[in-house]
Amino acid sequence: FLExxxxxxxxxxxxxxxxxxxxxxxxxxxxxxxxxxxxTDISLxxxxxxxxxxxxVLRFFDSLFPLVYSRLINPGITDLSEDYTECxxxxxxxxxxxxxxxKNMVTELSxxxxxxxxxxxxxxxxxxxxxxxxxxxxxxxxSRALVRMQYCPHCQGLTLIRPCVGYCxxxxxxxxxxxxxxxxxxxxxISTLEYLTNEMAASHELETALAGIWSSINEAILHAQxxxxxxxxxxxxxxxxxxxxxxxxxxxxxxPVKEVTGTQTFVMAHTSLNNRRREFISYMKRxxxxxxxxxxxxxxxxxxxxxxxxxxxxxxxx
Length: 318
Prior knowledge:
Structural class: mainly alpha
Shape: rod-shaped
Helix content: 55-70%
Largest sheet: none
Oligomer: single chain
């Protein structure tokens, strides 16, 4: 699952980078770092880091606004000092140059990434449970019962006689009583995984939200360009007027952007995650009764004598 998440994130990041390289080349090089930070934050959020989608997205637009303002709205600016850049970042929060597009991006990503984050945390919890029960401590009574079941026939020279099925089940159920108590919680855990994967595949589809990031950013930039004069007037009042080249360059033309990359890669990534979802849930459903039936699983196969009338019952050959 994590591999599929990472594949989708890389695809969405490359797609977003292509947007700047194709339509907003004057700021493409400087926009590379904010784009990288945005997708790193998204990845960390999915993995359970103490962060929010809103903070990641708004931090990205804070970093983006000075670039849009100095490279597209007022391309004649020559002096973009740290103080002026910081003023632009802070002003972004007040003048909202990107309109509703930044907030819409937060809403869409929050819905889809929540289910992915919860699934990632649930899988980590499942691994902890499995690892903790993999080395279950055996009581002294259990150890004695296992020795009696496996090795006491050897004292009579009966090295090929194996335990009876019923006897094996009694011993294993006694040894694994504490592990079997996980049954109800494990069933509930499997149901939770089903719910989360269904949520990811339904209205909160991760693939669609990630693939649409480039479009949201493009719409936000276009909105800022269309409102360039008003934004410039407000910024001049708050941050002052920066140095301009003589014969101030005209504002960069607005470029309508179509699909910046082909859909083939996205379709492959989408199919990959969908297939993994189906395979995973199918597999996990089969393990729903794992902790309830662990004694039966252990007493199946070569451990016990199934197809013979002769077996060891703990006291004698019967």
